[in-house]
Specification:
Helix content is 28%, strand content 42%. It is α+β, with helices and mostly antiparallel strands. Helix 1 packs across helix 2. It is globular, with a radius of gyration of 15 Å.
């Protein structure tokens, strides 16, 4: 395992933006799949001890992923992700909003932009998140950095396992 991989997490509160850069010791195609296929997203997309469960996912422009993060005692926190732009293997954008179990969205949401690049077998993922509301950004930041850092660690472990197959 390569311990020199970049991880950077920055917040620009004035612009209501979060900037995340993370490198993975895996090929770009595998990392892309991990971000865009429900069966892989469910294996890393929630910080332990929670787990992710995708109800459905249609990865195409205008398509959606509807999923929940589930606590060990069964409490569910649902979200809707709507894909707004896809350039295979290099970029996708989505609109993300929390919702109830019936997909009724809690507004405002956030716009996510994912960029993938590979150099010498290391894949870099740059994620920018624009929050429509400063209050939403402030409310989310407390737990978001910790939780998202944990999920990216889950992804690193999953990629190591998948790379050995």
């Amino acid at each position: 395992m390569n311990n020199d991989l970049l991880f950077d997490f920055n917040v620009d509160k004035t612009a209501k933006m979060v900037y995340i850069t993370r490198e993975f010791d895996a090929g770009q195609s595998l990392v892309w799949d991990a971000f865009t296929k429900a069966e892989l997203l469910d294996q890393w997309g929630a910080p332990a001890p929670m787990r992710a469960k995708t109800k459905y996912m249609n990865f195409e422009v205008g398509g959606r992923r509807f999923y929940a993060m589930i606590t060990p005692d069964g409490e569910e926190r649902w979200s809707v992700q709507e894909f707004t732009s896809i350039t295979p293997k290099t970029n996708f954008k989505m609109y993300n909003a929390f919702s109830d179990k019936d997909e009724n969205r809690e507004l405002p949401g956030s716009e996510w932009d994912h960029n993938f690049s590979e150099k010498n077998g290391i894949t870099r993922v740059d994620i920018t998140i624009y929050n429509e509301s400063f209050e939403r950004l402030e409310r989310l930041l407390e737990g978001f950095k910790i939780g998202f850092t944990m999920t990216l660690k889950n992804l690193e472990e999953l990629l190591a396992t998948l790379s050995q197959k």
